Each structure stands twice: as C-alpha cells, then as structure tokens.
Amino acid sequence: MSSIVLKNAEEIELIRESALIVSKTLGMLAGEIKPGVSTLELDKLAETFIRDHKAIPGFLGLYDFPNTLCMSPNAQVVHGIPNKNPLVEGDIISIDCGSLKNGFYGDHAYTFAVGEIAPKTEKLLQVTKESLYKGIAEFKAGNRIGDLAFAIQNHAENAGYGVVRELVGHGLGNIMHEGPEVPSYGRKGRGKKFQDGMVLAIEPMINRGSHRIKHLKDGWTILTADGLPSAHFEHDVALIDGEPELLSTFQYIYEALGIKSDEEIPFRKEALRI
C-alpha cells in the first residue's frame, strides 16, 4: 500500500465524480438483482454502464483481477469472481465496484438481499451498515484510525458478530489502494492522526459467526471459516474542515428499491441531487 496523499478541493471533487459513477452503477444493479440472474450477467451490465459514463472499470485487470465487479454471495466475504451460477431466493450478494475517471478512483460496496432473506441475515446487513456509519462519524479532526476502527468493532461485536481482521479499508486517489490502512477493529487513540484532505474507503466486513476467514484456491475468493454469511458495506469519505464528507452514496440503490433513508444527511454539507 502506498503512502498517504492529501487531496486538495479539486482532487476531492474528481474522486467524488468517480465515486458517484460507482454509486449509479450499484443503483442500476439494484434493479437487476433477482432470483435466476447470474453474477456474470450483472458483471457485464456493470462494465457497459461504467464505460457509458466515460469511465473505466476500476477493478478489471487490477492486480490481474478478471472482472469488473467483486461478487461475493452468502459466506463469501470479498473478492468473489462472477460466474454463471444463478442467484436464488434468500441469497445475499456483496457487490464491490470501482471506477477510474480523470485519473482518480471511486470504490464502494453494498450487500443486497436476493428476494426475501432470513431475519438473522437481515439483521447482519443492518448492523454492518450501521457499523459503517459509526466509523464514518469518528473520521474527524483530532481523532485517529483507532477511534474509527474501535467504533466499527464495538458496534458489530456488541451485536454478537465477528469483525474480519485480515482485510482493511484504505486511502483512495490516483491509486486504488493508498495509505493509510483502515481496519475495522482497533483501540481508541491509536494509529495515524486524521488530517484534512484525507480520502478514505471505509469498508467493514462483518461475519454472522466467527471473525475467521479462509481462502479459495482461485487466489481471490475469501470465505468465512464457519460457512455463515458475511456482509460488506463501503463508502468513500473525505475529511474537509475537520468533518467527514461522503463522496459516494447509497441513494441510487434506495431509489431503485423504494427505500427511504436519511442516514447520509449528517455527512453531507450539501444535499445530494439524484
């Protein structure tokens, strides 16, 4: 992972543009996710959509990854490779997506329900998303990485879930994975101190059971060690005037799914125009 690179206002807006292309891509996919569709079909839709928005798929070819989307159903944590297997009722599917435009990356993720899902799984998704916002709230002047990480870990573990330790969030800019590393577990007051101009991809990966994971032989896919479901939500966030500013949004997803939410309002200086 490269060093920390602070961004000026213009660079932050360019990252926002790339992040919102990812947001719109996830919103488009939200309307396509249903039993019977394959993750490979969704991957092709996403690649076309991103290119139609004059951007380049950020993951395709990155570290030799073969596709546009990381598609991780059920017990897969992250980095699942799209395939021809159809989704089925009751699945969950984590979709991690990146775009590159004007030399800057956007990178964020959402875990979708496929039809009706079990109440235990629904709660996992809810708590994981809540933990993301708990972390974002701690990305502010005077705090450190450990404050953000502790907030995520505390919320998830209080609900009885396992917080993945081996995989972390990161800085974002001209490079997909810049410094600093942004874990979802840690101790208050530890780690790098936050500075204006930092842009982070904050992405808790939370397991319904143990925090332990294992790797598939494909060299990419990571699964929960106990086979229980895992959820993953990610936002791109800048530190501006000492406060967190969302660069990505879930609002396109919510519009597609008919969900009303005000969860992003505390982290925007100006209302997002959809």
User: What is the mean predicted local confidence, pLDDT?
Assistant: 96
Low-confidence stretches: none
**Overall strand count:** 15
Give the strand order of the largest sheet, numbering strands 1, 2, ... along the chain.
8-7-9-14-15
CATH class division: Alpha Beta
- In DSSP terms (H or I, runs of 4 or more residues), the helix count works out at 5
CATH fold node name: Creatine Amidinohydrolase
Q: Give the ordered list of helices and strands.
A: HHEEEEEHHEEEEEEEEEEH
Q: Return the domain count.
A: 1
Specify the CATH architecture. Answer: Alpha-Beta Complex
Report the end-to-end length measured between terminal Cα atoms. 34 Å
Q: Tell me the strand percentage band.
A: 15-25%
Which helices and strands, and how do they pair?
Elements lengths: L8 H22 L8 H14 L3 E2 L11 E5 L2 E3 L13 E10 L2 E10 L5 H19 L7 H14 L3 E2 L5 E3 L6 E5 L16 E4 L2 E3 L5 E3 L6 E3 L5 E3 L2 E6 L2 E4 L4 H7 L17
Antiparallel strand pairs: 1-4, 2-4, 3-12, 4-5, 6-10, 7-8, 7-9, 9-14, 10-13, 11-12, 14-15
Helix pairs in contact: 1-2, 1-5, 3-4
